[in-house]
Amino acid sequence: MNVDLNELTGRAGEWMKGAGPQSDIVISSRIRLARNIAEFPFIRRCTATDRAAIDKAVRDRLAEVPKLNDLYYLRVDELSDVDRHFLAERQLISRELVEAEGARSVAIDPGERLSLMINEEDHLRIQVMKSGFDLVAAWDQINEVDDLLESKLTYAFHDKLGYLTACPTNVGTGMRVSVMLHLPALVITQQIEKVFRSLQKINLAVRGLYGEGSQAMGDFYQISNQITLGRSEIELRNQVHDVVPMIIDYERRARDFLLKQNQQDLHDKISRAYGILRTAQTISSEETMHLLSSVRMGVNLGLIDDLMIADINKLFVDTQPAHLQKLRGGPLDTAGRNSERALYLRRYLSQKEKDGADQN
Amino acid sequence: MNVDLNELTGRAGEWMKGAGPQSDIVISSRIRLARNIAEFPFIRRCTATDRAAIDKAVRDRLAEVPKLNDLYYLRVDELSDVDRHFLAERQLISRELVEAEGARSVAIDPGERLSLMINEEDHLRIQVMKSGFDLVAAWDQINEVDDLLESKLTYAFHDKLGYLTACPTNVGTGMRVSVMLHLPALVITQQIEKVFRSLQKINLAVRGLYGEGSQAMGDFYQISNQITLGRSEIELRNQVHDVVPMIIDYERRARDFLLKQNQQDLHDKISRAYGILRTAQTISSEETMHLLSSVRMGVNLGLIDDLMIADINKLFVDTQPAHLQKLRGGPLDTAGRNSERALYLRRYLSQKEKDGADQN
Predict the structure, then answer these.
(1) A225, β-bridge pairs
(2) Which of B12, B71, B310, B331 sits in a 20 to 30 Å window from A262, CA-based?
(3) What residues does A74 pair with on adjacent strands?
């Protein structure tokens, strides 16, 4: 099933909905499985012909599975650069798949909860994303998808090691469990480093919004397991699952502290951030993330009435470079994007303010 | 005629109207004359009894002059500290009169164009203020008031020196001619120092908003004559009168340059300033002046539609400490003022925005 990417532009993907459990602090819960097909060499050793054959094999098998044959199937190497980045900004593909070479694809369900990357670091990367804190549902879905695929494909599997992967860090379960958290109060109260050190001690990794090596912009932090071997999938899932409520609790306490300590200063910071977003004539992506982070906390604390969390999540995505260019319908340089971003924010937020005023 | 100062609170004084010639750049034109009554010693040598006698003498003579007998006459030493500062913020009295000791007064016309300070540095300081660039009208009025007073009081006058004053710098005409200019573009383009040096070379002084020693907040600069002796009143008036159009021209060129150079950056700066003023929950007087200065230029350049110059001038005055406390109806500490100031700005500007939206 093919899809016009422009169709996705106006929609809210799964993680933007802000609808799941604890979605004031937890943006999304994600699980991915790394899988390889036994009959092909690992990607690094593949010829162009191998890659094309892998791509075709996966596509053909998907068509045979009733529950997976309605996925959008996109040849990433045939997309424009803007479209590739567009998919990455929606977290449907990884930065690695954007920058990889040769035949590579992604299959996405229309709700943007499931995505299958073909020819990323491994032949297959299965990813399920849920809004809010919902790792159990994510596991149930990915486990079913994995079983469905395994009924059609022979995975590279070793009796003692488990699933074989291109990088040794993924061998075993091939599973990465991650939760994206919004932790502005821990950042303001300078407790975030302490939280990170505690997580590292129990072998959990902390990363920015776009995974490995990316900066933690907008106070978003992704927490995930580092170990994939020697534990069951459920154990790995539970390790992340059990620690997240503690971090949520720390963040809530930090927010309470800020409110008690000096509600006016916090309100001032949040309110000014909202004011700048509504009036800037040119604004960078980084400043936008920074200000939206304040506003998001303001919505959660009841200090801003006009907006809902879904609005903020949508703005986080829509103001990124590829989304802006898709919305504008043409390429834009940095200055052009900064101007278009400011225009988009002003229009969106003044409409919301108007809607809010009409309701009162 | 007595006056309840609360009556003035809601009103716009002469210099706030923004109605006079060139009022996009010239806030006000002011002339003051220093006079002393021959039968009394200079203020510094006065006893408390002398001061009271001077105050009574002036008050009694004013009552005899038909054109001056409807002035509000206020005993400044009997006012509260907030009320004294309130008058200074409206530029009806000087900081010196606020801080002086003993019997002292001010007589003000209801339109706040004329004010007579009694027992400031000299027995009498006559001041006439006009909105915009209007020194000729200011001179005509002050000359008439001076003649009316001189018909009732014997001024200290020396045939060769002219009017005698407490400070030698005022001897002769006792006249200071000053024009208050708003020069944000010369500040941004870093040409303001150059302009000042040129003015100093022709013996003109440059000061901030509240006269001698005060900081130039909000890009307001007061230009005035330094020499009072050896030239006629008309010559002194013309010296300032002739130089102001050149400064206005420099400022306009600097604005054009900024618009051509990078209209978007200028618009961004102005628009954000407006956004912060509309949303801050706490804001200092200094930051308010700074932001209002940007917004004032924005209104003049047609980049902000909701406001008129009169609104900005009013906000400059109303957000100052004594005005805020008068508006609130009680004393406020710094934190309380910063909060009240932000509240006042939000209410005023959201009302203007609403009015603007209703008109469109």
Answers:
(1) A204
(2) B331
(3) A106
DSSP per residue, A186-199 = HHHTT-HHHHHHHH
d(CA B207, CA B205) in angstroms, rounded, equals 7
CA-to-CA distance for A286 and A215, rounded, in angstroms? Answer: 10
pLDDT at A12: 73
Give the count of beta carbons closer than 10 Å to the beta carbon of residue B80.
13
Q: How many CB pairs under 8 A join A and B?
A: 50
Residues pairing with B114 in the sheet: B128
Indicate if the pLDDT at residue B189 is higher than 80: yes
Q: Are the CB atoms for B105 and B76 separated by under 8 Å?
A: yes
Confidence of residue B228 (pLDDT cuts 50, 70, 90): confident
Q: Are B61 and B69 in contact (CB under 8 A)?
A: no
Assign residue B122 a region: left if phi > 0, alpha if psi is -120 to 50, beta otherwise? beta
Report the C-alpha gap between A26 and B314 in whole angstroms: 46
CA–chain centroid gap for A303, Å, is 27
Lowest mean pLDDT among A217-231, A327-341, B173-187: A217-231
Tokens 């907030």 label which residue?
B82
Q: Decide if A43 touches B, using CB distance below 8 A.
A: no
- Residues pairing with A182 in the sheet: A220
pTM: 0.88
Scanning B294-353 for CB atoms below 8 A from A yields: 339, 342
Helix (H) or strand (E) holding A209: none
Among the partner residues A278, A281, A283, nearest to B267 by beta-carbon distance: A281
Q: What's the rounded mean pLDDT across residues A274-291?
A: 96
Cite the annotated binding site of B for ATP by residue number. Answer: 28-32, 125, 176-180, 207-212
- Strand-strand pairing, B124-131 and B26-35: antiparallel
pLDDT at B41: 96
Number of Cβ atoms within 10 Å of the Cβ of A350: 14
Tell me, yes or no, if B290 comes closer than 8 A to chain A by beta carbon.
no
Q: What's the pLDDT at A5?
A: 75
Q: Provide the token pair at A336.
A: 């052009």
Check residue B63 and give its pLDDT.
93
Q: Is a pLDDT exceeding 90 seen at residue B1?
A: no
Nearest-CA neighbor of A299 among A101, A69, A24, A7? Answer: A24
User: What are the strands, taking DSSP E only, across B151-272?
Assistant: 157-158, 162-163, 175-182, 204-207, 220-225
